[in-house]
Amino acid sequence: MFFKEVNRKDSGDTIISNIFIDIFMPMANGLYVQVYLMGYRQACDPKANPNFNNVSLAKNLGVPLSDVINAWKYWEQKNIVKMHKNGVDDDFDFSIEFIDLRNYYNNNIDNSVVQPVQSDTDKLLEARDNPSIVRMFNSINKIIGRPLAPSENIKILELINEYNLTPDLVVYAYEYSKEQKNGNPKPINYVESVLRGWYDANIISVEDAKNSFVARKDRYSIYRSVLNQLGFSNRQPTDSEKEIIDIWIDKYNFSPELISYACSKSINTPNPSISYINGIIENWYSKDITTLEDVKKEEEEFRANKQKEITKTKTETKNHNYNNNYNKDRTPKVVTRYHNSFNEHFRKYSEDELEAKLLRVQNSKKAK
Prior knowledge:
Protein name: DnaB/C C-terminal domain-containing protein
Number of strands: 2
InterPro entries: DNA_replication_prd_bac, DnaB/C_C, DnaD, DnaD-like_sf
Pfam family, one: DnaB_2
Number of helices: 17
CATH superfamily of the domain at 16-106: Winged helix-like DNA-binding domain superfamily/Winged helix DNA-binding domain
Distance between the termini: 145 Å
Organism: human gut metagenome
Mean pLDDT: 81
CATH architecture of the domain at 16-106: Orthogonal Bundle
Largest sheet: 2 strands, antiparallel
Low-confidence stretches: 110-114
Order of helices and strands: HHHHEEHHHHHHHHHHHHH
CATH class of the domain at 16-106: Mainly Alpha
């Protein structure tokens, strides 16, 4: 039972068509419904702020402006709003025209035969006639260990229609969700968030999902390898570190081997960090070095140039020393009168006479 409290104080009401509530709202993303309702409230209020636009709506809901525009595009596909571009330069500046749902409903059905809105029971009965849907429900029952509630069956059917999903992908989403935390089954809302994420990532088959997991696993292994080489094996990479590493892979197209080689340059660094490695990689990228072979070639050229400088320095030093010695040898020897008299004095004696003279001098000293 549902009823409404009566309040004499009028704070304003916005009348929402039951056509929107019964037909369009159940199949829509919750955020898209919020965008529609808040925009419709502004359209119905004659006292509404004329400057209230999509930017204001995004701020009120606390979501990116792109999400608001995506919501209006969704409702335009459902033919219940029209988007009118206000300017040429701004891709996000739209005015929204709300279509009269009663006229839309009357103009899009056969007036001679009024088709009733299909009930949840009718949806389930119709689904039972589809073998692939029946297999899907049976598989999900085994995964979660209990029969699905009717409301869960209806929700799954709505997700299939909204995101154009295959039954196999829905089953795989339940398997994936169960594996995330100790093998415990997850509620339908969790599975819905997984399927929505896959839809946004353009994952439309089980094979796409598995390939995505492999790519994500490979990317995570690179994160871990970088941190391990930097000595941070006991923590997870931060979002900013992931963004930097993603640039190395996605923008620079560097291989894991080349990234690992860059990390090896931090072995003798006292405080290695992602920023230090990023400096090395950005330097390589600026020089159009994108492979390990390019790095080895650049290092070999550096060593060759260094050896040339060393050889040149040794040659210059050797020439300098040679010139000094040459000049030294050519310097005239200074011979004093003392040197001449000394040499002439000792040339008068033979070796035996000098030795005898030396002995006499020694003996005379002992006698004293």
